[in-house]
Amino acid sequence: MTADLRRLPVGFGRLWAAQTVSSLGDGVSHAALPLLALMVTRDPMALAVVTAAGTLPWLLFGVLGGALVDRWDRRRTMWVTDAARAVLLAIPAAAAAFDVLSIPLLAAVAFLLGLGGLFFDTAASAYLPDLLGRDSALLERANSRLRGAQTAMSGFAGPPAGSALLALGRAVPLFVDAVSFALSALLVRSLPAMPRPVPEIRESLLRQARAGASYVFQNRLLLGLALRPAVGNIAFLAVGTVLALFAHDRLGIDTYGFGLLLTAEATGGLLGAGIAAHLGRRLGTGTALTCTAAVEGFAILGLAAAPNPYVAGLALAVCGTGMGATMVLAPSLRQAIVPAHLIGRVTSTSRMLAMCAAPFGAFLGGWLATTFDVRTPLYAAGGLLLAMTAVTSTMTSNRRVEAALRGSSDRESQTQDSRPADAVIAA
């Protein structure tokens, strides 16, 4: 790992530190916001509004946000967004301090934080390949570290810290999250500037957004990469909707044990992120993606058939490993093959498809559990993941991946050859 880090540019260390700090703050707020909402009301629908508000920006502005990121300076977009989120969190922190929190305020904050996340995540995905020279091996290593840090901070350290900080005062976790965004903004602001993409003919925002979406749907490799998280979200939300009920009724797991069950999945995610680059080198990225998708499907089937909590925890850990590796390999490949002027729109289109699919999975899981039994959504989810693996295996084959990487390398060489020698990097 140390040897790998020496091959990554110095700027990546600052980006990694920024996302690590920010992920810790995200984990704190993800635990604190629902608990703060619970202090205001016990109405399940009101609590659901706060939870759903954070996902709405991707559904409403996903593709348009990507088009804007492709117009803007990516580094500036990241640090301005984080600075704005730091200021935003001062509002609910003050409201909590003066005991005037309300559900509409918390929902509005969750929505705006989600909107900031849309711009930051899309800009970061677009900035990273420029920083690393679109080198696919470096991108895999970099995304492995970014994903590992995100899982560790937002999945392990952040939530318990958020709960503990809430005991010190309602405003404390919000203040800590604000500080994390401010530190992230300062770190991102110190990153090296990258050349702006070659400007396109001036078109309307909607036309540019459509162009980005069309690029995904007309490219079989990119479409396969987008379909996997979209179908995966249907399956995983179907499981997540009934997982607590399944764990309680069929496995006899109490509240504390359920937390450990989720920790097993996060542990697998860390392992998957760590071995993703190795899998890509040994199997080829396309085959590795097919294998990790199949592992997820079989693991969910194993969870459905689990006779006790230990087997269920192992199944979730295996599933998390597949998910962790997939979430490193797929974005790295996308960043390596998509032209710089389209990467924001392609990334946001893929993310929007995944987010739009999630509610269908939640509805499917609830309906299957109500109509049949609590194990049925798990069996259906496992079958759906395996079917998706079979359908997309040819779309993301090693042959297609290698052809796309060669095409990207040729395009990058032509761009560099045509760039004036005295070109100035935009600040």
Q: What's the short story on this structure?
A:
The protein is mostly helical and 427 residues long.
Describe it.
The chain crosses the membrane at residues 45-69, 89-120, 164-188, 225-246, 258-279, 286-304, 310-331, 352-372, 378-396. One of its GO terms (cellular component) is plasma membrane. One of its GO terms (molecular function) is transmembrane transporter activity. This protein is mainly alpha-helical and 427 residues long. The chain folds into 2 domains: 9-189, Growth Hormone, Chain: A, CATH 1.20.1250.20; 204-414, Up-down Bundle (Growth Hormone, Chain: A), CATH 1.20.1250.20. 83% of the residues lie in helices and 0% in strands. It has helices at 2-7, 10-40, 44-53, 56-71, 74-88, 90-97, 103-131, 136-168, 172-189, 205-218, 220-249, 255-283, 285-304, 309-337, 343-371, 376-392, 398-418. The protein is globular and about 60 Å long. It starts with a helix and ends in a 9-residue tail after the last helix. 52% of the residues are buried.
Helical proportion, percent range: over 70%
| Cα radius of gyration in angstroms | 21 Å
What's the story with the biggest beta sheet?
Answer: none
Count the E strands. Answer: 0
Strand content: under 5%
Q: Spell the H/E element sequence.
A: HHHHHHHHHHHHHHHHH
Domain count, please report it. Answer: 2
* CATH fold label of the largest domain: Growth Hormone, Chain: A
CATH uppermost class of the largest domain: Mainly Alpha
Shape designation: globular
Please state the structural category: mainly alpha
pLDDT < 50 runs, ≥5 residues: 1-6, 419-427
